[in-house]
Amino acid sequence: MSNAMLNHICNDENDPMLRVKLRCKHGDLRSMQTSWLEHNPARRFWSCPCYLEDTCNFFRWRDHEDVDIRSKYVIPRLAKRIKELEEVLASYESRVENNQVMMKEKKKRKCCNLKLIVLIFLVVSVCNLKDGSC
C-alpha cells in the first residue's frame, strides 16, 4: 500500500486541519501527509517535495503531540506487514497471470491437434472414396 493510500485512510475527513492552506516558498499548496517512520508513526505533517533538496526547509507538524510508545512499536510493524502481504499478493497475481497464459497456449495446441486429426481423417476418407487407396 502506498504512502498516499495510507495517508488517505488515516485522514479524518472531519479534521479541520485538512482544509488548512499552507504554501512553501515555491508557492505551491501543501497537502497533509502522514509519517510512517518508526520514531513518528501516524504523525501528520506538511512539507515541500523539495525539502532538503532545493534549500526549501518548509516542514510543519500538524501538532506537537508525541506518539505513544505502543504506537511507535505497533504501527511501523503493521505497515511493514502490509507491504509484505502486498508483495505476496503481487507474486500470486503474477503466477495466476502466467498460468492463464500457459492454459491459453495449451488450449490452442489442443485445438491445433484436433484440427490436424480432423484434416487427416478427411484426407483418408477422400482417398478411400476415390479409389480405395491413397
TrEMBL record:
Q: What is the lineage of its organism?
A: Eukaryota, Viridiplantae, Streptophyta, Embryophyta, Tracheophyta
Domain spans labelled GRF-type: 24-65
Membrane-traversing stretches = 112-129
Q: What is this protein called?
A: GRF-type domain-containing protein
Q: Which organism is it from?
A: Solanum pinnatisectum (tansyleaf nightshade)
Q: Which UniProt keywords apply?
A: Coiled coil, Membrane, Metal-binding, Transmembrane, Transmembrane helix, Zinc, Zinc-finger
Q: Which InterPro entries match?
A: Znf_GRF
Give one Pfam family, short name only. Zn_ribbon_GRF
Recorded coiled-coil stretches = 75-102
